[in-house]
Amino acid sequence: MFLVSGPELVVAAARAGIVGSFPAPNCRTVDELDAWMARIARDVEGARGTWAVNLVTHRTNARLADDLEVVAAHRPPVVITALGSPKPVMETVHGYGGLVIADVTTLALADKAVAAGVDGLACVSAGAGGHTGHLSPFAFVSAVRESFGGIVTIGGAITDGHGVAGAVAAGADLVYVGTRFLATTESTADAAYKQMVVDHGPADLVVSSAVTGTDASWLRPSLAANGYDPDTAEPPAQREYASGESAQRRWKDIWAAGQGLQTIRAVEPVADVVDRMEREYVEAAQRLASRVNGG
């Protein structure tokens, strides 16, 4: 949700009863990050849900130490690590009683994160938007559950409550939902970006490393509009995940999405999306129960 989720979306999600999150690089400066966290912590007080911040722990993120100082000051209940080892955040977050969830795209990365002492894994699977994985979510969660008893989250093409129920039935505790909340009124995404998500489907996505150096799922029209040939573009010489101007410009104009966009019909408020997903989850759970009970 780079350049998509901000305080308004995070707070709306928490008030709707789920976990709202945002990537720290959405803030161009440490001072802005401090202001965002202060606002979110204040506005989610008393909410049914909670909030999280996502920190890029890759070595190219020169701002990580400063971001961690802000985290220590505002104590987000959940810290998600991405694109690098979770080790740099463990002492700070566990020091105030927070949870560390590591984004992982392979079983090898999952093993390393578990060894580092994380509280949970976010298994970013095939179909996820932005930086994506390639494993089936079912295969991923089954393999992880063989040796890990912590929190397991599945990410990848989940845009409705039926997908949430399927993930839970497969062994997950939580799910990542990104693309569906991209197309909400509280999202900071450009209006044209939201409409592109509504208007297009999985056939309009391209998985390419040409933008950041790591495989990501992009909307083909946005690649073409920015001079990339989706079929021949080469990755950059150096990966870039930090919050610098070039990264901001790149993601501002080139738009990511996951395979679940086929079911997104309109831009709606977060609360409406969550209410519908809850109804769909209950319907799916009841359908599964009827099968188990021979109905």
From TrEMBL:
Family annotation (Pfam families): NMO
Q: Which UniProt keywords apply?
A: Flavoprotein, FMN, Monooxygenase, Oxidoreductase
UniProt key word Oxidoreductase: yes
Q: What domain of life does the UniProt record list for this protein's source?
A: Bacteria
Q: Molecular function terms in GO for this entry? A: nitronate monooxygenase activity
Q: Which SUPFAM superfamilies match?
A: Inosine monophosphate dehydrogenase (IMPDH)
Member of which family?
Belongs to the nitronate monooxygenase family. NMO class I subfamily.
Which named protein is this?
A: Nitronate monooxygenase
Where does this protein come from, organism-wise?
Answer: Nocardioides flavescens
